[in-house]
Amino acid sequence: FPLLFILLLLFLINIIFLFLLLLFLFLLFLLLFIFCRLLLPFLLRLPPIHGAASDAKEANSPPRLIGVGLPEARSLNEGDRLELYCRMTGDPKPTTCWIKDGMWRLESNGSDLEVSHSEAISTDHHR
User: Keywords in UniProt for this one (predicted)?
Assistant: First the structure.
């Protein structure tokens, strides 16, 4: 009788040990999942992973023009304001630069360009 009692006790201890081991592994998996899926992208400032095929196509899309603001040909008087804009999409996000007579227009604001005095601008080439 004492031997049977000891064997039963050892069996129950093994069952409890296995249960605690499985519980520990489950909690470890849960913590790893939370870290890798939720916290790691936030820490690295990455967008969430969706896994869809369309997301992969959009992730490396070439630059594409989605809007250009060019006025009709007209004369400007000195002091008149002319606004031009260029809207583009793509991934990585494209940058817009304005060039006139081979010179960069540093006073432009990204995709917007404002010319505050009369100066001839050719709209033959868009870059």
Answer: Membrane, Transmembrane, Transmembrane helix
